[in-house]
Write a structure and sequence with these properties.
- Strands 1, 2, 3, 4, 5, 6 and 7 form a seven-stranded mixed sheet that branches.
- This protein has a single domain, classed as 2-Layer Sandwich (Alpha-Beta Plaits).
- The radius of gyration is 16 Å and the shape is elongated.
- It is α+β, with helices and mostly antiparallel strands.
- The model has no long low-confidence stretch (mean pLDDT 83).
- Helix content is 22%, strand content 31%.
- A hairpin with a 3-residue loop joins strand 6 and strand 7.
- The N and C termini lie close together (6 Å).
């Protein structure tokens, strides 16, 4: 396959996260239902694909994705601790989602991964009695042609 292929891109990001996190986390390129803890690669809120990052068939496009982390099934404190672990970075943390994104090569499918405003940030952090969750919006810069899987 070559060019802008959304399915393989989402699968490559999910694979990268899956390989990086150290525990039994359900990681999927699409919404998977009720398996927790889960990390899903979803289309960005509002904007999914900007085909005109640079013009022409050989230019670049931006794919806006949300990495959604949901911790559920433990107690209130356990869910929050698990979410903190996924959102942490640095030496000794084998479950940091941001570390997985920063080290992503994605088989040549993209040129860059960054946050919505240039910085990767955890937003929409929510804690209820049932779960703790967060969303990490990212922008993936991809070639419209020439990217291969």
């Amino acid at each position: 396959m070559s060019g802008l292929q959304l399915g393989p891109l989402r699968e490559a990001i999910a694979d990268q996260i899956r390989q990086y996190v150290a525990r039994g986390t359900h990681v999927a390129p699409y919404q998977i239902g009720d398996e927790y803890p889960m990390i899903e690669v979803r289309p960005g809120e509002g904007l999914y694909v900007d085909y005109t990052d640079t013009f022409g068939a050989a230019g670049y496009a931006e794919v806006h994705l949300d990495i959604v982390i949901i911790c559920r099934g433990g107690g209130l404190e356990d869910n929050q601790r698990a979410l903190d672990d996924y959102l942490s970075m640095g030496t000794g943390n084998g479950s940091g989602v941001v570390e997985a994104l920063n080290s992503a090569e994605l088989n040549g499918l993209c040129d860059d991964i960054r946050g919505e405003d240039g910085r990767i940030q955890a937003v929409d952090v929510t804690v209820t009695s049932e779960q703790a969750s967060a969303r990490i919006p990212i922008v993936v810069i991809v070639k419209k042609v020439g990217a291969t899987v």
